[in-house]
């Protein structure tokens, strides 16, 4: 994930930057770390749950850091997982514990898949937008601002209560289905 390199490797990349930035680089130690950035955009999981096993956070949907929200997605996942597990285990009626947990985790996966994978692909776009490589916004500051705001609002203005209500509804549906089998 990281590679130790000579500071001189980064100097040409910043040669057109403002003097204060170049001066800052001069003050760095001779050895610096190069960070690789990986995401799961090309390999989205088709489910986050199988039986009594589920993936949450980066294990399920690792993202690049350009939205600054990968950690938040993991926290939202955790909130859904605890709420569906609580619902399923307090309402087992006729099912085994394993069946209830399976239904709960399937509900978690259903509710979280689209949003968390949107973040992975949008975060990739954000990297392009910041570097003026995104064709729809190019180097136009007003277009860039509007695009960043629209995408960020999707993260900031998310209705968490609505998400939990959906998760509980989906969990109930799946518990009923398991009971009928
Ligand atoms: C440069 C950068 C900037 C970021 N900025 C932000 C930000 O501003 N806001 C934000 O919300 N998110 C940000 N993120 C994303 C955020 O850091 C991650 O989404 C978050 O840390 C994922 O949490 P996690 O618990 O899912 O996984 P991790 O944090 O990766 O935790 C997994 C843990 O499991 C441990 N582990 C692995 N294998 C095993 C094993 N076999 N046995 C036991 N333990 C094991 C690992 O050591 C690790 O501690 C950023 C990420 C990067 C790289």
Automatic annotation (TrEMBL):
One of its GO terms (biological process) is secondary metabolite biosynthetic process. GO terms for molecular function: FAD binding; oxidoreductase activity. This is FAD-binding domain-containing protein. The keyword Oxidoreductase applies. Signal peptide: none annotated. PANTHER family: FAD-BINDING DOMAIN-CONTAINING PROTEIN-RELATED, HYDROXYLASE, PUTATIVE (AFU_ORTHOLOGUE AFUA_3G01460)-RELATED. Residues 27-121 form the FAD-binding domain. It comes from Coleophoma crateriformis. Keywords: FAD, Flavoprotein, Oxidoreductase. It holds the Pfam family FAD_binding_3.
